[in-house]
Amino acid sequence: MRSQLVTSDVWWEVARACAYATFFHTPLWHQLITMTYPGCRDITPSVVLANGTRAVLPLLEDSSPSNRLPIRFSTFAGCYGGVVADGPIEGREGETAVSHLFQTAVSWRISRFKCLSNPFAPVETLPQSLPKIRDDFTHILALEPDYETIFARFTKGHRSSIRKGQRMGVSVRLAETLEDYQAYYQTYEDSLRRWGERASSHYPWRLFENGFALAQQYPDNIRLWVAEAEGRILGGAWVFYWQRHAVWWHGAVLEDFFAYNPSNVLQDAIIRDACARGYRYYDFNPSGGYEGVIRFKRHHGAEEWPLSRYEYQPPLFRLSRALKTRFRKKVAP
Taking the CB of residue 146, how many other CB atoms lie within 10 A of it? Predict the structure, then answer.
């Protein structure tokens, strides 16, 4: 069985045909990342099984100067990865295909390969030999049977916070201009200031600028929602859509307007819209271990879905690190 770099047409077709594909398994996510980070390149492989099924492993390689050796991801920023396919990948041949795709990812010329499991995918989309480093979870809200029932399942305090924010004049709309995105980025910078060293990531403005450009081409898949009051944007939530899955990927609000409950009003409007557009799941995404974030998601009635985080390091790289650690201990005073 031979793999090859996937063509854009094949990848789009597979992502559209795969019931468990998310936005992070599409060419759009990789396009956004490679537009933003010059050191990242798309090296997504694909194989064709005897039954005609096409399998694709979304794969990025980061060769930025800050990395001694390239790092590979499925996918970027610790988002869902693993194989997607336009047909069954069961049995011995399916296992061989998945294993072969992952073998292309774990080259000896890299420092590590990272992958987060896809909570919607069958277990056969990941090889059993991939080293798991820890368990994790995301919070997912099933959007059924209707919005009114879902809203009634919110905690009493959460419903009260939404109504309070609405009474204080908070309204929600889609970002329409680059200036809207810039205003949202300012709320993100305010959040970074507040988080300080606790911030787990720091995304550059060009990521959001490129996201705005892609949203003009794919308005149903990339949506920045913003909350407003007193003539200004108080915060927002960047939500990605694919198939019947909507995922909240990024959010921020201004600290001075916490009393307006913009996050509560925002999420209510986004969930209402997702219900109206026929989405089945609203995914709050992993919480990074932050208890306050976890509680906020639980207030919506969202349930924990298990995830696994995997990381492979080539033996030579592990040996090199071990030797360096041993040498440092010997020369330490």
Answer: 10
